[in-house]
Design a protein that fits this description.
- This protein is mainly beta.
- It is built from four helices and 35 strands.
- Strands 1, 2, 3, 5, 8, 9, 10 and 11 form an eight-stranded mixed beta sheet that branches. A five-stranded antiparallel beta sheet has the order 4-34-33-32-31, with no helix packed on it. Strands 14-13-12-35 form a four-stranded antiparallel beta sheet, with no helix packed on it.
- A hairpin with a 2-residue loop joins strand 2 and strand 3.
- Helix 1 crosses helix 4.
- The longest helix has 18 residues.
- The N terminus is likely disordered.
């Protein structure tokens, strides 16, 4: 999908599988079934900004691709409200709990009404059909106290992309109010698990960052593990195990095809992209020793980066591509280390009690997320690249494998339940450790990989 802006401030075209394109809002036209799929089970901050999000208006109820513009107006508002609520910073009102707006109100809000609801901001918008069988969605944000417009954007989309228009609108609102980079219009790759413990079927799957638009990529015939989105979001690297053959594949999301990067009969895992998408790190066990290798994304001969007795695993590039963070038990227990991209200058950076695993460099470069193991528990934490400022963000029995949101403010991870079933599920938490939520998936889920914001 491509997002292109056209002339006027309010026109983006999200043309689609085809794309999504920004277009000028000229107010306009109703719906289809909705499907916010995230379940909130965490604790919310008590100091959140109240935002009213009434259903988007429509100039005339029309139907395109089986979708009524009036229903879509409500569904888009529901996704916007859910995104904003998910950030932990906002307390949305609506659309079910507030009155609907008229087309005339889209650009002329009745601020007194929203002030009376204690809403500091209000989101207005519209949905109408265009002449080519698509939709135009307008999105506006207002300050109810000042009576001023803060955001104005428009999206020309294929009908099937209406959820992306909602996420783009929520991203614009979030960025305008928080000053942070957006993250709602992004996708997550993960491993969908089913079957009895000890004989799990593990399939590669992808979904929107809120759990919408879920689809399975592999059929479960081969065991799939360790997915990671490419920096341009176009591809996913993962490991496939079938008949004692271990292969690292790159799956092309748009084309639905995949190519082999490397293959071995040795245990191979944890592939990770370089920031420019040309190189891939992976770990491989040979002769009782596990080391980290780097290989071209086009395949070829791997370059060994570590050469220590013991287990060197993982590897995550710093955003500038100059350093790699990884875990190693060379000092007697798993700890976090950094090295240059050629393997030189290997240094231990974690020195707290317990063991550390699955380090992941933040896209901002300011923090490293990790799994902390101790006292029989696995918890998610962060530290600076020099090993300082360690903080634990979760406090459950078994949380592991953190992955960063595109803006480096939120982490997703998976949690395994106690007991014989050992079910796993996907969760996310922000850097305060307060805003904790569970993501809804069709099957058990593990090993999430959060991709970049979609173009």
């Amino acid at each position: 999908m491509i997002l292109r802006s056209t002339a006027f401030a309010l026109v983006l075209a999200l043309a689609a599988s085809p794309a999504m394109a920004q277009v000028a809002p000229t107010p306009p036209a109703t719906p289809a079934p909705s499907e916010p799929r995230e379940t909130i089970e965490g604790t919310l901050s008590q100091d959140r900004t109240v935002i009213a999000v009434p259903a988007l208006a429509t100039p005339a109820v029309t139907t395109v691709a089986g979708l009524r513009t009036d229903s879509l107006g409500r569904q888009i508002a529901e996704v916007i409200a859910a995104d904003l609520e998910r950030s932990g910073l906002y307390a949305p009102l609506g659309p079910g709990s507030v009155r609907a707006i008229t087309m005339a109100e889209v650009t002329a809000p009745r601020f007194a009404d929203w002030q009376a609801r204690n809403a500091e901001n209000v989101v207005h918008g519209f949905v109408r059909t265009n002449s080519t069988g698509g939709l135009i969605v307008g999105c506006y944000l207002y300050d109810t106290q000042l009576g001023s417009e803060l955001v104005r954007q428009g999206f020309e989309i294929q009908p099937g992309d209406w959820r992306r228009a909602a996420h783009k609108c929520a991203d614009a609102i979030y960025s305008r109010l928080s000053g942070e980079a957006p993250f709602f219009d992004s996708r997550v790759a993960y491993i969908a698990e089913s079957g009895p413990k000890g004989n799990r079927i593990k399939r590669l799957a992808i979904m929107d960052s809120d759990g919408g638009n879920h689809r399975f990529i592999t059929n479960g015939q081969a065991l799939a593990i360790s997915p990671r989105f490419s920096p341009d979001y176009q591809k996913i690297v993962y490991v496939s195990y079938l008949n004692d053959r271990v292969r690292v594949f790159i799956y092309d999301v748009a084309a639905g095809t995949q190519k082999l990067v490397t293959e071995s009969r040795n245990a191979t895992f944890a592939p990770r992209w370089s920031p420019d998408g040309t190189q891939i790190l992976f770990s491989m066990a040979t002769g009782g020793n596990t080391d980290i290798y780097r290989i071209s994304a086009n395949g070829g001969t791997p370059v060994r980066l570590t050469n220590n007795p013991g287990i060197d695993v993982g590897g995550s590039f710093s955003p500038d591509g100059k350093k790699i963070v990884f875990e190693s038990d060379r000092s007697g227990g798993q700890q976090v280390y950094t090295m240059n991209i050629d393997g030189s200058n290997q240094q231990r950076i974690s020195f707290g009690g317990g063991r550390y695993a699955t380090p992941e460099w933040s896209p901002r470069g300011d923090l490293i997320a990790f799994t902390k193991m101790g006292g029989g528990e696995f918890r998610i934490g962060v530290m600076t690249p020099s090993g300082g400022g360690e903080r634990l963000l979760t406090n459950d029995w078994q949380d592991e494998a953190p992955t960063w949101s595109p803006n480096g403010r939120v982490l997703q991870f998976f949690r395994t339940s106690r007991g014989a079933s050992g079910k796993s599920s996907l969760w996310q938490v922000d850097l305060t450790g307060v805003n904790m939520r569970k993501l809804q998936t069709p099957q058990d889920g593990s090993d999430p990989s959060w991709g970049p914001v979609l173009p």
